[in-house]
Write a structure and sequence with these properties.
Elements: E1 2-9, H1 12-27, E2 34-39, E3 43-46, E4 63-65, E5 72-75, E6 79-85, H2 95-111, E7 117-120, E8 123-129, E9 143-154, E10 157-165, E11 185-186, H3 198-213
Parallel strand pairs: 1-2, 3-4, 9-11
Antiparallel strand pairs: 2-6, 3-5, 6-10, 7-8, 8-9, 9-10
Helix pairs in contact: 2-3
């Protein structure tokens, strides 16, 4: 498996072209699996379930139609995007379990910084409880989203993946309804008061991946 980290900001089209080609090569047995860590310039992506009314400011940043599952999401500097090109024929061909493993990977990574991430029925991604904030209109505890998950499979090889907010400009999420959810907010590691760098997160991501999926050669 290749563990790939890119410096700077990677254009979204360039990333998608790479992922699609790599996934095809993996399915043919011509390339090894790949985990790719990068950052994008500010942009919005529309997943296969995106609703046009959730794009509140269409002129703010470029908007890309994505073939991943999910609705609108934001990518930008200070957010670690992790693209996972993995062969599910070696992992049981169980899509639901695979998504749960990705969620668990994020939760394990956050635990390295003493954060408790949560999965919520009907709300994709990983959430942080905010007892310090006023309760929601429905009376529920306030929660903020810290990580998004959206994958696509082609010939049982995954691509797209997850994103974790380290220190993005959280105001940039204001141009969309993130993942179609209005009742809850968005946070980041630095917003939560943790002086975590991108390098710190990368180390935790790799350790948590190896603990869950096995050593990377």
């Amino acid at each position: 498996m290749e563990w790939k980290i890119s410096d700077g900001l990677t254009p979204y089209d360039e990333a998608v072209t790479f992922m699609e080609a790599r996934a095809e090569a993996i399915s043919k047995g011509e390339a090894e699996e790949c985990i790719w860590l990068l950052e994008h310039p500010p942009l919005y992506t529309a997943g296969t379930s995106a609703r046009l009314e959730d794009l509140k400011d269409p002129d703010r940043f470029p908007v890309y139609t994505s073939k991943r599952g999910g609705q609108y999401t934001y990518h930008g500097p200070g957010q670690r995007v992790v693209y996972v090109m993995l062969d599910l024929t070696k992992r049981g061909k169980d899509v639901r379990r695979f998504v749960e493993e990705l969620e668990g990977w994020v939760i394990d990574t956050l635990a390295a910084f003493n954060l408790d991430g949560h999965i919520r029925c009907g709300r994709v991604g990983v959430w942080i409880e905010r007892p310090d904030r006023p309760r929601t209109a429905s009376g529920a505890m306030a929660e903020d989203k810290i990580a998004a998950i959206g994958i696509r499979l082609r010939k049982w090889v995954s691509f797209h993946g997850i994103s974790i907010n380290v220190e993005p400009d959280l105001s940039h999420f204001g141009g969309i309804v993130p993942c179609g959810i209005t009742e809850y907010g968005v946070t980041s590691l630095v917003d939560l008061g943790l002086p975590v760098t991108m390098d710190d997160l990368d180390v935790a991501l790799r350790q948590a991946f190896e603990d869950r999926f096995g050593p990377i050669p």
